[in-house]
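User: I'm new to structure prediction. If I give you an amino acid sequence, what do you actually give back? Let's try with this one:
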Amino acid sequence: METRLIIGPGLRPAPPPALHAAHCLVIGGWTVVELSGEIDCAAAGSVEWKLSGAIGPHCADLLVDLSEVTFLDAAGLHVLERAHARARALGGGLRLVCPPGPARDRIRVLSGERRLPVFADLGSAMAAGAPPHRGPGLRRNA
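Assistant: Good question. You get back a string of structure tokens that encode the predicted 3D arrangement of the chain. For your 142 residues, that looks like this:
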């Protein structure tokens, strides 16, 4: 006997998680959070959780690498802006690493790149100025 899954109106399989990965590194005093996938309202909570965990009194300088982000909406940008405000309140700051493409276009449309400094690659973001809080050379956090 063959069993078939029939999906009727209003019944759909659950979509895959929007945020595919988030990794955190510390490089030369900067905390680097690498994000991939989609940063939309479905992923905003997990992105906020990851960024909140990365910012602290001894680690207030954050680089958020959006190089592998395929989509960014207003909810995702709002999370990034809140993380920037938290980092600044602790004497640090947040810089976005986002090469030209759809995610950078959304940042430009939604905020005009006024609120958050945006760089094309990690090297240029780090070269734009040293973070005020110097940390260890390279450490990988889960």
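You can read the tokens as a compact description of the fold. Here is one thing that stands out. Residues 55 and 106 are 24 Å apart (CA to CA).
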